Amino acid sequence: MAAKHTDPIREKLEHFVGKPLGSPEPQVAPDAVNLPMIRHWVDAMDDRNPVYLYEDAAKRTRFGGIVAPPAMLQAWTMGRPKIQGIAERGGSPDDIAFDNPITALDEEGFVATLATNSELEFERYLRPGDVLRSVNILESISTQKKTGLGLGYFITWVTTYTDGNGDVVGRQLFRILKFKPGSGAADA
Amino acid sequence: MSAVRSKHLKEISVGEELPRFDLTVTATVIVAGALASRDFMPAHHDRDFATGQGAPDIFMNILTTNAYVSRFVTDWAGPEAMVRKIAIRLGVPAVPGQTLTFTGTVATATAKEVEIDIKASNEFGDHATGTVTLTVPV
To answer: What is the ipTM metric for this complex?
Structure first.
Protein backbone atom coordinates (compact mmCIF):
# COMPACT_ATOMS: atom_id res chain seq x y z
CA MET A 1 0.00 0.00 0.00
CA ALA A 2 1.27 3.44 -0.90
CA ALA A 3 1.73 5.77 2.03
CA LYS A 4 -0.22 9.01 1.89
CA HIS A 5 1.78 12.21 1.74
CA THR A 6 0.45 15.68 2.18
CA ASP A 7 3.24 16.91 -0.10
CA PRO A 8 1.89 16.50 -3.67
CA ILE A 9 5.40 16.17 -5.15
CA ARG A 10 6.30 13.39 -2.74
CA GLU A 11 2.95 11.73 -3.36
CA LYS A 12 3.74 11.58 -7.09
CA LEU A 13 7.01 9.78 -6.33
CA GLU A 14 5.50 7.07 -4.12
CA HIS A 15 4.92 4.58 -6.92
CA PHE A 16 8.67 4.42 -7.67
CA VAL A 17 9.54 3.01 -4.22
CA GLY A 18 10.43 -0.68 -4.18
CA LYS A 19 10.68 -0.82 -7.98
CA PRO A 20 13.67 -1.04 -10.32
CA LEU A 21 15.34 2.32 -10.83
CA GLY A 22 16.03 2.87 -14.52
CA SER A 23 15.98 -0.20 -16.72
CA PRO A 24 13.68 -2.96 -15.44
CA GLU A 25 16.08 -5.47 -17.01
CA PRO A 26 19.36 -6.33 -15.24
CA GLN A 27 22.45 -4.56 -16.51
CA VAL A 28 24.77 -7.18 -17.93
CA ALA A 29 28.50 -6.48 -17.81
CA PRO A 30 29.76 -5.89 -21.37
CA ASP A 31 32.93 -7.81 -20.48
CA ALA A 32 33.73 -10.58 -18.05
CA VAL A 33 36.06 -9.66 -15.20
CA ASN A 34 39.43 -9.50 -16.92
CA LEU A 35 43.08 -8.71 -16.35
CA PRO A 36 43.44 -5.76 -18.78
CA MET A 37 40.70 -3.78 -17.01
CA ILE A 38 42.15 -4.71 -13.62
CA ARG A 39 45.59 -3.55 -14.76
CA HIS A 40 44.13 -0.27 -16.04
CA TRP A 41 42.45 0.24 -12.65
CA VAL A 42 45.42 -0.58 -10.42
CA ASP A 43 47.65 1.68 -12.51
CA ALA A 44 45.11 4.53 -12.36
CA MET A 45 44.76 4.16 -8.57
CA ASP A 46 48.45 3.26 -8.07
CA ASP A 47 47.36 0.25 -6.02
CA ARG A 48 50.22 -2.25 -5.71
CA ASN A 49 48.41 -5.01 -3.85
CA PRO A 50 49.88 -8.10 -5.59
CA VAL A 51 46.66 -10.16 -5.42
CA TYR A 52 45.19 -8.10 -8.26
CA LEU A 53 47.85 -8.86 -10.89
CA TYR A 54 50.40 -11.45 -9.86
CA GLU A 55 49.24 -15.06 -9.99
CA ASP A 56 52.19 -16.43 -8.01
CA ALA A 57 51.78 -13.95 -5.17
CA ALA A 58 47.98 -14.24 -5.24
CA LYS A 59 48.19 -18.06 -5.06
CA ARG A 60 49.99 -17.85 -1.73
CA THR A 61 47.14 -15.84 -0.17
CA ARG A 62 43.67 -16.88 1.00
CA PHE A 63 42.38 -15.93 -2.44
CA GLY A 64 44.31 -18.71 -4.15
CA GLY A 65 44.66 -16.73 -7.37
CA ILE A 66 44.13 -13.35 -8.97
CA VAL A 67 41.10 -11.38 -7.78
CA ALA A 68 39.71 -8.04 -8.92
CA PRO A 69 39.97 -4.98 -6.66
CA PRO A 70 36.73 -5.00 -4.65
CA ALA A 71 35.95 -1.34 -5.35
CA MET A 72 35.78 -2.21 -9.06
CA LEU A 73 32.43 -3.92 -8.42
CA GLN A 74 30.43 -1.01 -9.79
CA ALA A 75 32.68 -0.60 -12.84
CA TRP A 76 31.95 -3.99 -14.43
CA THR A 77 28.30 -3.34 -15.22
CA MET A 78 28.64 0.33 -16.17
CA GLY A 79 26.79 0.88 -19.43
CA ARG A 80 28.74 1.46 -22.62
CA PRO A 81 28.70 5.22 -23.11
CA LYS A 82 27.64 7.19 -26.13
CA ILE A 83 30.35 9.84 -26.04
CA GLN A 84 28.73 12.18 -28.57
CA GLY A 85 26.24 14.38 -26.75
CA ILE A 86 27.09 13.15 -23.25
CA ALA A 87 27.48 16.71 -21.87
CA GLU A 88 24.15 17.74 -23.43
CA ARG A 89 22.54 14.75 -21.69
CA GLY A 90 23.95 15.99 -18.37
CA GLY A 91 26.43 13.14 -18.22
CA SER A 92 23.98 10.32 -18.82
CA PRO A 93 25.93 7.58 -20.63
CA ASP A 94 23.12 6.86 -23.08
CA ASP A 95 19.91 8.43 -24.29
CA ILE A 96 17.59 5.65 -23.19
CA ALA A 97 15.12 7.40 -20.93
CA PHE A 98 13.19 5.61 -18.19
CA ASP A 99 10.50 7.10 -16.05
CA ASN A 100 12.25 7.63 -12.72
CA PRO A 101 12.09 9.85 -9.63
CA ILE A 102 15.28 11.72 -10.54
CA THR A 103 13.92 13.13 -13.79
CA ALA A 104 10.53 13.59 -12.11
CA LEU A 105 12.22 15.84 -9.52
CA ASP A 106 14.18 17.65 -12.26
CA GLU A 107 10.85 18.60 -13.78
CA GLU A 108 9.68 20.00 -10.42
CA GLY A 109 12.75 22.25 -10.20
CA PHE A 110 14.83 20.00 -7.93
CA VAL A 111 17.52 19.93 -10.61
CA ALA A 112 20.69 19.70 -8.52
CA THR A 113 22.13 16.37 -7.39
CA LEU A 114 24.52 15.67 -4.53
CA ALA A 115 25.71 12.16 -3.70
CA THR A 116 25.64 11.74 0.07
CA ASN A 117 26.27 8.06 0.90
CA SER A 118 27.81 4.96 -0.63
CA GLU A 119 27.90 1.60 1.12
CA LEU A 120 29.61 -1.23 -0.72
CA GLU A 121 29.41 -4.80 0.59
CA PHE A 122 31.36 -7.71 -0.82
CA GLU A 123 30.30 -11.33 -0.42
CA ARG A 124 33.35 -12.51 -2.30
CA TYR A 125 36.10 -11.05 -4.46
CA LEU A 126 35.61 -11.42 -8.20
CA ARG A 127 37.87 -13.52 -10.40
CA PRO A 128 38.74 -13.21 -14.07
CA GLY A 129 35.92 -14.82 -16.04
CA ASP A 130 33.09 -13.77 -13.72
CA VAL A 131 30.23 -12.20 -15.68
CA LEU A 132 28.22 -9.81 -13.56
CA ARG A 133 24.66 -8.60 -13.66
CA SER A 134 23.23 -5.81 -11.58
CA VAL A 135 19.75 -4.69 -10.63
CA ASN A 136 18.91 -1.34 -9.00
CA ILE A 137 15.95 -1.20 -6.65
CA LEU A 138 14.72 2.10 -5.30
CA GLU A 139 14.70 1.61 -1.55
CA SER A 140 13.30 4.89 -0.27
CA ILE A 141 12.50 8.52 -0.96
CA SER A 142 12.48 10.86 2.01
CA THR A 143 9.89 13.47 2.78
CA GLN A 144 10.90 16.97 1.68
CA LYS A 145 13.87 18.13 3.75
CA LYS A 146 15.28 21.56 4.38
CA THR A 147 19.05 21.19 3.96
CA GLY A 148 21.94 23.65 3.92
CA LEU A 149 21.87 23.50 0.14
CA GLY A 150 18.15 23.96 -0.28
CA LEU A 151 14.88 22.08 -0.15
CA GLY A 152 15.22 18.55 -1.39
CA TYR A 153 14.54 14.85 -1.22
CA PHE A 154 16.93 12.04 -0.34
CA ILE A 155 16.69 9.12 -2.75
CA THR A 156 18.23 5.76 -1.77
CA TRP A 157 18.68 2.76 -3.99
CA VAL A 158 20.38 -0.60 -3.63
CA THR A 159 22.24 -2.26 -6.49
CA THR A 160 22.63 -6.03 -6.19
CA TYR A 161 25.35 -7.75 -8.19
CA THR A 162 25.10 -11.40 -9.12
CA ASP A 163 27.49 -13.79 -10.86
CA GLY A 164 26.88 -16.31 -13.63
CA ASN A 165 25.29 -18.74 -11.16
CA GLY A 166 22.90 -16.10 -9.91
CA ASP A 167 24.71 -15.88 -6.57
CA VAL A 168 24.98 -12.44 -4.97
CA VAL A 169 28.61 -11.26 -4.98
CA GLY A 170 28.04 -7.75 -3.64
CA ARG A 171 25.69 -4.86 -3.04
CA GLN A 172 25.85 -1.11 -3.08
CA LEU A 173 23.56 1.25 -1.25
CA PHE A 174 23.64 4.70 -2.75
CA ARG A 175 21.93 7.87 -1.55
CA ILE A 176 21.61 11.20 -3.29
CA LEU A 177 20.02 14.51 -2.41
CA LYS A 178 17.97 16.06 -5.21
CA PHE A 179 17.56 19.71 -4.32
CA LYS A 180 16.33 23.03 -5.60
CA PRO A 181 19.31 25.38 -5.84
CA GLY A 182 18.82 28.71 -4.14
CA SER A 183 16.04 27.52 -1.84
CA GLY A 184 18.30 27.03 1.19
CA ALA A 185 21.03 28.83 3.10
CA ALA A 186 22.34 32.11 1.65
CA ASP A 187 25.77 30.68 0.82
CA ALA A 188 24.48 27.47 -0.79
CA MET B 1 56.70 -9.32 -7.12
CA SER B 2 58.19 -9.74 -3.68
CA ALA B 3 56.02 -11.05 -0.88
CA VAL B 4 54.26 -8.33 1.07
CA ARG B 5 53.70 -8.80 4.77
CA SER B 6 50.09 -9.19 5.88
CA LYS B 7 48.86 -8.20 9.32
CA HIS B 8 47.42 -10.85 11.57
CA LEU B 9 44.72 -10.12 14.10
CA LYS B 10 47.12 -10.25 17.06
CA GLU B 11 49.16 -7.44 15.50
CA ILE B 12 46.15 -5.11 15.35
CA SER B 13 44.91 -3.18 18.36
CA VAL B 14 41.85 -1.01 18.89
CA GLY B 15 42.77 2.66 18.78
CA GLU B 16 45.76 2.03 16.53
CA GLU B 17 46.20 4.63 13.83
CA LEU B 18 46.92 3.70 10.24
CA PRO B 19 49.87 5.42 8.56
CA ARG B 20 48.56 8.67 7.10
CA PHE B 21 48.38 8.78 3.33
CA ASP B 22 48.65 12.06 1.41
CA LEU B 23 47.32 11.80 -2.13
CA THR B 24 48.38 14.60 -4.43
CA VAL B 25 45.19 15.17 -6.40
CA THR B 26 45.81 16.39 -9.93
CA ALA B 27 43.56 16.54 -12.99
CA THR B 28 45.41 13.43 -14.17
CA VAL B 29 44.60 11.51 -10.97
CA ILE B 30 40.91 12.41 -11.33
CA VAL B 31 40.69 11.63 -15.05
CA ALA B 32 42.71 8.39 -14.76
CA GLY B 33 40.39 7.17 -12.00
CA ALA B 34 37.20 8.16 -13.81
CA LEU B 35 38.20 6.40 -17.03
CA ALA B 36 39.51 3.26 -15.30
CA SER B 37 36.12 3.01 -13.61
CA ARG B 38 34.38 3.62 -16.97
CA ASP B 39 32.71 6.77 -15.67
CA PHE B 40 32.46 9.25 -18.55
CA MET B 41 30.45 11.86 -16.67
CA PRO B 42 31.95 15.15 -17.94
CA ALA B 43 32.16 16.60 -14.40
CA HIS B 44 35.11 14.23 -13.88
CA HIS B 45 37.15 15.37 -16.91
CA ASP B 46 35.75 18.60 -18.40
CA ARG B 47 36.43 21.72 -16.33
CA ASP B 48 33.96 23.91 -18.25
CA PHE B 49 31.20 21.37 -17.67
CA ALA B 50 32.05 21.07 -13.96
CA THR B 51 32.17 24.81 -13.29
CA GLY B 52 28.98 25.24 -15.34
CA GLN B 53 27.29 22.98 -12.80
CA GLY B 54 28.55 25.09 -9.91
CA ALA B 55 31.52 22.90 -8.95
CA PRO B 56 34.87 24.63 -8.30
CA ASP B 57 36.67 22.38 -10.82
CA ILE B 58 36.51 18.81 -12.12
CA PHE B 59 36.13 16.51 -9.15
CA MET B 60 36.90 12.91 -8.21
CA ASN B 61 34.19 10.33 -8.92
CA ILE B 62 32.92 8.10 -6.15
CA LEU B 63 34.42 4.92 -7.58
CA THR B 64 37.86 6.51 -7.37
CA THR B 65 37.23 7.66 -3.81
CA ASN B 66 36.23 4.08 -2.90
CA ALA B 67 39.31 2.75 -4.72
CA TYR B 68 41.65 4.96 -2.70
CA VAL B 69 39.84 4.22 0.57
CA SER B 70 40.23 0.49 -0.13
CA ARG B 71 43.88 0.93 -1.10
CA PHE B 72 44.61 3.05 1.99
CA VAL B 73 43.40 0.23 4.23
CA THR B 74 44.92 -2.73 2.34
CA ASP B 75 48.29 -0.94 1.99
CA TRP B 76 48.34 -1.16 5.78
CA ALA B 77 46.68 -4.56 6.31
CA GLY B 78 48.41 -6.39 3.47
CA PRO B 79 47.33 -8.72 0.67
CA GLU B 80 45.68 -11.31 2.96
CA ALA B 81 43.09 -8.78 4.11
CA MET B 82 39.67 -9.06 2.55
CA VAL B 83 37.55 -5.92 2.40
CA ARG B 84 33.96 -6.78 3.34
CA LYS B 85 32.42 -3.33 3.43
CA ILE B 86 33.22 0.27 2.51
CA ALA B 87 30.60 2.63 3.92
CA ILE B 88 31.23 6.32 3.37
CA ARG B 89 29.42 9.60 3.78
CA LEU B 90 30.38 12.01 1.03
CA GLY B 91 31.25 15.61 1.75
CA VAL B 92 33.27 18.23 -0.10
CA PRO B 93 34.64 17.47 -3.58
CA ALA B 94 38.21 16.29 -4.17
CA VAL B 95 39.63 18.70 -6.75
CA PRO B 96 42.97 19.23 -8.53
CA GLY B 97 45.62 21.13 -6.60
CA GLN B 98 44.48 19.99 -3.16
CA THR B 99 46.10 17.15 -1.24
CA LEU B 100 43.63 14.55 -0.06
CA THR B 101 44.75 13.20 3.31
CA PHE B 102 43.60 9.77 4.44
CA THR B 103 43.59 8.94 8.14
CA GLY B 104 42.22 5.89 9.89
CA THR B 105 41.82 4.37 13.34
CA VAL B 106 41.06 0.79 14.30
CA ALA B 107 37.59 0.80 15.90
CA THR B 108 37.11 -2.92 16.48
CA ALA B 109 39.37 -5.92 16.02
CA THR B 110 37.89 -9.39 16.39
CA ALA B 111 38.30 -12.74 14.62
CA LYS B 112 35.03 -11.96 12.83
CA GLU B 113 35.99 -8.52 11.57
CA VAL B 114 38.22 -5.50 11.86
CA GLU B 115 36.57 -2.11 11.51
CA ILE B 116 38.56 0.97 10.58
CA ASP B 117 37.11 4.45 10.95
CA ILE B 118 38.48 6.41 8.03
CA LYS B 119 38.49 10.00 6.85
CA ALA B 120 39.73 11.63 3.66
CA SER B 121 39.96 15.40 3.86
CA ASN B 122 41.31 18.38 1.95
CA GLU B 123 41.36 22.19 2.32
CA PHE B 124 37.58 22.36 1.87
CA GLY B 125 36.92 19.89 4.70
CA ASP B 126 35.94 16.22 4.85
CA HIS B 127 35.62 14.59 1.45
CA ALA B 128 34.67 11.15 2.79
CA THR B 129 34.12 9.79 6.29
CA GLY B 130 33.10 6.29 7.17
CA THR B 131 34.05 2.75 8.02
CA VAL B 132 35.90 0.00 6.21
CA THR B 133 35.26 -3.54 7.43
CA LEU B 134 37.91 -6.19 6.82
CA THR B 135 38.66 -9.74 7.69
CA VAL B 136 42.29 -10.56 8.41
CA PRO B 137 44.12 -13.81 9.18
CA VAL B 138 43.80 -14.81 12.82
So the answer is: 0.95
